[in-house]
């Protein structure tokens, strides 16, 4: 919901009524009288529901270790007195950086996305009277650049899914539908010249991200070491392949990130994993999600749509469900993207299903990264990734806890996929 001032909201509504009345001059006097009356009651309603003063503030730190790597998240509850005299409560989320050196201004970039980019998304939705709910949350304000105040999605019955359980088909299809809408709206704005690559940052694992190489090389290297030493003997040859991949993976990823003039460009979320999305559930079927919103935007970037899709399917979804339903998943995304573009006046330009398959093939190195290294981090309770070590001179593999690759749970989740990659010569 886009926040409007009382004055702008009332003026906009009464202006609409006035201009509508000009179409029927015989009712002009009555309609103008009605417009004035509506303006009066709107001003009264806005005034009475607005805040007179805050009488109490309480804070609650939220989040689970491993869900947030660079931020401290706090829910703030405000006990307020409205101008009507009624007591009420409002909640909001405060996001602050951890005491951690970061070689890129992630908070400044995220504020820019909320303030300059997502506001354009809201404006486009208003322009076309899009009846769908936005798939992003709203920023209420910020203190440059160490506090961001956001709407509290929990107050609207949204919650984060359990990352360790991985997403089922219903959750994944809903997210793909949301990505189709997000990508479609962003493509319209890119074509209008409202958004350009220079307006945004880079993907988390892009070679332009200052710590990406240590994540990519360190993850594959640690996996190779564990596979050779702790997995059954038949995996030793595969371990050598992953050790070799660790040396060339960043060059492969660079080739994926370097899009061409023919690439279908969108604004990617850039860090599209389970803890950066929140779901609302059906009131009569608690396990069925009915809405999704994306949060945390410091790695938003302009690039191929396949970046978000590959991250979602590889890191967040159960591998067996993904393997059995990949065509359904790609079709769901394509349908959402195409229908969004058609709604916004750009029919027939969405990538075809065949083109999506081709992009996924081009992004295979990312699929391997997300389906192995990142998946292992996601499914464990204990810490799997030490972000602070990525900024130190230690060996890159020490950024990852070797234990995450030793578990039987992880090996059984991914072994069929690894065998396929080997058989097809992908690794």
UniProtKB/TrEMBL annotation:
Q: Which domain of life is it from?
A: Eukaryota
> Ranges for the CHK kinase-like domain?
148-343
Fetch the InterPro entries from UniProt: CHK_kinase-like, EcKL, Kinase-like_dom_sf
- Annotated SUPFAM superfamilies: Protein kinase-like (PK-like)
Q: Which Pfam families match?
A: EcKL (PF02958)
Q: What is this protein called?
A: CHK kinase-like domain-containing protein
Can you name the source organism?
Rhynocoris fuscipes
The organism's lineage? Eukaryota, Metazoa, Ecdysozoa, Arthropoda, Hexapoda
């Amino acid at each position: 919901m886009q926040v409007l001032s009382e004055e702008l909201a009332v003026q906009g509504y009464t202006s609409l009524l006035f201009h509508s009345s000009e179409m029927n001059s015989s009712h002009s006097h009555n309609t103008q009288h009605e417009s004035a009356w509506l303006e009066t009651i709107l001003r009264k309603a806005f005034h009475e529901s607005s805040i007179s003063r805050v009488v109490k503030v309480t804070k609650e730190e939220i989040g689970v270790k491993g869900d947030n790597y660079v931020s401290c998240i706090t829910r703030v509850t405000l006990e307020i007195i409205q101008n009507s005299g009624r007591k009420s409560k409002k909640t909001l989320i405060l996001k602050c950086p951890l005491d951690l050196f970061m070689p890129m201004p992630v908070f400044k970039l995220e504020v820019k996305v909320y303030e300059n980019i997502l506001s354009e998304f809201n404006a486009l939705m208003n322009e076309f009277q899009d009846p769908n709910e936005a798939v992003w949350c709203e920023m209420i304000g910020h203190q440059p650049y160490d506090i961001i105040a956001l709407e509290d999605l929990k107050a609207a019955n949204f919650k984060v899914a359990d990352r360790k359980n991985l997403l089922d088909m219903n959750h994944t299809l809903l997210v793909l539908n949301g990505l189709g809408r997000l990508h479609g709206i962003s493509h319209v704005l890119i074509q209008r010249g409202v958004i350009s690559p220079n307006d945004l940052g880079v993907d988390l694992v892009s070679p332009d991200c200052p710590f990406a190489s240590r994540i990519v090389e360190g993850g594959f290297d640690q996996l190779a070491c564990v596979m050779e030493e702790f997995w059954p003997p038949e995996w030793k040859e595969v371990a050598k392949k992953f050790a070799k991949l660790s040396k060339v993976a960043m060059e492969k990823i660079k080739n994926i990130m370097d899009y061409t003039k023919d690439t279908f460009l969108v604004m990617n979320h850039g860090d599209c994993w389970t803890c950066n999305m929140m779901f609302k559930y059906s009131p009569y079927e608690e396990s069925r999600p009915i809405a999704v919103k994306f949060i945390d935007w410091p790695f938003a970037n302009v690039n191929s749509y396949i970046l978000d899709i590959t991250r979602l399917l590889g890191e967040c979804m159960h591998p067996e469900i993904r393997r059995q339903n990949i065509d359904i998943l790609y079709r769901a995304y394509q349908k959402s993207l195409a229908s969004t573009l058609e709604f916004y006046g750009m029919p027939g330009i969405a990538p075809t299903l065949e083109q999506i398959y081709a992009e996924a093939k081009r992004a295979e190195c990312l699929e391997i990264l997300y389906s192995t290294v990142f998946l292992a981090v996601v499914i464990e309770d204990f810490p799997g990734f030490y972000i602070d070590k990525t900024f130190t001179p230690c060996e890159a593999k020490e950024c990852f806890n070797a234990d995450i690759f030793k578990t039987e749970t992880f090996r059984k989740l991914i072994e069929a996929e690894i065998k396929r990659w080997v058989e097809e010569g992908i690794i």
